[in-house]
Amino acid sequence: MVKLDPIAEFREDHRKVRDGLLELMEALQSKNVVKARKILDGINVLVGPHFRYEEETLYPALRVLLGEYVDQLLKEHDGVIATARSCAGLLKKDGLTDEEAKQAAAAARTLLIHVSNCDGLSILSERLSKKEIDNLSEKLAAARKAGVPLLDWAETIRGK
Q1: How far does the chain reach from its first CA to its final CA, in angstroms?
Q2: Which residues contact 158 (CB under 8 A, 6 or more apart)?
Q3: Which residues contact 144 (CB under 8 A, 6 or more apart)?
Q4: Residues 145/139/136/159 CA torsion (nearest 10 deg)
């Protein structure tokens, strides 16, 4: 089996999420609920394994370098999950009011900040040992193979 490059894959996930969030913002601003729902579903599927990998493997590995900042990253994940739940609930409706569309687009915009901040962890990951990077590779592959979407993972596996 070919090993994943966990740092390159991590960064590529962030690019996909960034682009998805930008598309989601556009769909929300135009109140295209069907398109927004489809985009959010795609982000949910992509981000589930990514968050699982971060919380179960990457963050513990980086705690040596980042200390208590890891706790802040976990709190940011709490906020992302709450925002995703809220947006998913909102998108169950057939249409959005102007205010709902504006608030949902603003919430998606704030998620871009987490994506940007989190991508900086890749430069720190480069300082991990080969053994640790190999472990990151295995765990990322396992999280992707399990393929649990974000909101399902948050409800059933994460335990918060």
Answers
A1: 34
A2: 52, 55
A3: 49, 53
A4: 120
Q: How many domains does the chain have?
A: 1
In a domain, 1, yes or no: no
- For 145, the domain range is 6-155
Name which of 113, 114, 90 is nearest 102 in CA terms.
90
Does any domain span residue 101?
yes
pLDDT digits (tens, 9 = 90+) for 132-160: 999 999 999 999 999 999 999 999 999 86
Task: Give tens-digit pLDDT for 99-132.
Answer: 999 999 999 998 999 999 899 999 999 999 999 9
Q: Is the Cβ–Cβ distance between 47 and 150 less than 8 Å? A: yes
CATH number at residue 16: 1.20.120.520
Q: How many residues does the chain have?
A: 160
8 Å CB contact between 29 and 103: no
Cα separation of 55 and 58, whole Å?
6
